[in-house]
Design brief:
The chain is α+β, with helices and mostly antiparallel strands. About 25% of the residues lie in helices and about 40% in strands. The chain has two helices and six strands. The longest helix has 14 residues.
Length: about 100
């Protein structure tokens, strides 16, 4: 039988200029790890094509963590960045397969 841990998946889509700041913030706010990938798309602030070397690129940051950490990161992003940078933050319930299964 597979065992899953219940947690949150916090996703941040924002301007790539924030990457070094977000990495520092995530670690300071308790994230054990994160994934950052280039992103492209269109939203209410226009299109982002994700071309290398283009100043208008976006990133997608994903953090799997507990609800308290997710809420702390989301609140910090809203406070520190949302007024001056294009950003969307969303949160979902997640179930992560546990690495080490106990004996039944």
């Amino acid at each position: 039988m597979l065992n899953y841990q219940f947690c949150k998946l916090l996703t941040i889509v924002t301007e790539s200029a924030l990457e070094p700041h977000l990495k520092r913030d995530l670690e300071r706010l308790g994230a054990d790890g994160y994934t950052i990938v280039d992103a492209r798309g269109k939203g209410h602030r226009g299109s982002r094509d994700g071309s290398w070397g283009n100043a208008s690129t976006n990133i997608r940051v994903e953090v799997i963590c507990d609800a308290e950490t997710a809420n702390a990161i989301a609140a910090h992003c809203k406070e520190a960045y949302s007024d001056n940078y294009g950003m969307i933050v969303f949160l979902r319930d997640a179930q992560v397969l546990q690495e080490h299964e106990g004996e039944d």
